[in-house]
Write a structure and sequence with these properties.
By secondary structure, this protein is of the alpha/beta class. The chain contains 14 helices and 14 strands. It starts with 16 loop residues before the first strand and ends with a helix. It binds pyridoxal-5'-phosphate.
Length: 396
Amino acid sequence: MSTSSSIPSRLDVPKRLLLGPGPSEVDSAVLSALSQPTLGHLDPVFLRVMDECRQMLRHVFGTKNDLTIPMSGTGSAGMETLMVNLLEPGDRALIVVNGVFGGRMAESARRAGAAVHELRIPWGEVVSVKRLREALTQMGGRAELIALVHAETSTGALQPLEGLRAVADEAGALLALDTVTSLSGCPVDLDRFGVDAAYSGSQKCLSCPPGLAPVSLSDRALSRLRARKSPVQSWYLDLTLIAQYWGNERAYHHTAPTNMVVALHEALRICCEEGLEARFERHRRAGKALQAGLVAMGLKLPVPDAIRLPQLTVVSVPEGVDAASVQRAMLQEHGIEIGGGLGDLKGRAWRIGMMGSGATLANITRCLAAMSGALESEGFMPCGDGAAAAAAAWSA
Ligand SMILES: *Cc1c(COP(=O)(O)O)cnc(C)c1O
């Protein structure tokens, strides 16, 4: 820069209340962990951090899978890790597309060279075992990979996992799952449901800043990886190499983002300290309370109660209301971030997150009050007391 006046001033970022689809609220303990001195990626202290992260990640994923590690990158890096490691050119992949993230998995699998069969179902719905089996039959009964999204953040629907393993067995397929929004917000239980490969992101219910993508691979998935005929198409995401850094060899592959891993360690510790069951229950109550408040205000929730996520609620934008104006008012006047609609729902829905440490009654009350005011400015008069309904549902 030629003159001092052209140097940007030091940043003081505002404190927002993050109630969108992620990133979510981050505890101050996690932010403190992030600002500790940077460690070398082979420092003995860091090696211990790595081992403890793997152990805690196994706990939150509900698995004994040895290869359970955070990939360097956001949730999407986790998605590509699964696709490029588990698929080879010509492999058949059956991918359920019921929202934005299913569509991305299909695209990523195609780019990995797979012949992709997309099972498209309406947004906001989930797939039944029967429907999955029919799609498999249409493909000739065999596939190398079946992939679904557990918690579709674009639609707010929760995919039940019962019975999926049996279909994967019939197909001779690996079962892969996007758990970006579900991990530590609702039960994932990879081993119980026979999931072979899963990925997640640090910035949703784990309440860590964005930048890491926990992944877990079963022994079956590892055997598939070892039996590959072609090298993994992405060098950076190649698990055969990365596993040697996270394993006993400690072989350098790329410089691990050590501060981020230390932050994840703290976020996972907080999860384990709260206890997974208690954490799921808090998310469940927060979802119920927020949703009761929204309904009491006269707003519509398009996803049926039985498959509605607690940690991410999709709200329909009422007729005549400008979705973006409401979001802008909430952010500028109240410092609250909520999300807009993605894909088919752009401009037609808001997405409110109750993720991780943000899932509290106090935050729900703040959000509903801010939303009421913003809606009134747009000419929509909330018909009832959202905060009172939320408080009642929280205590129910
Ligand atoms: C957020 C999200 C992703 C993508 O994660 P990034 O961290 O944005 O790369 C993938 N799948 C689901 C279900 C998500 O909610």
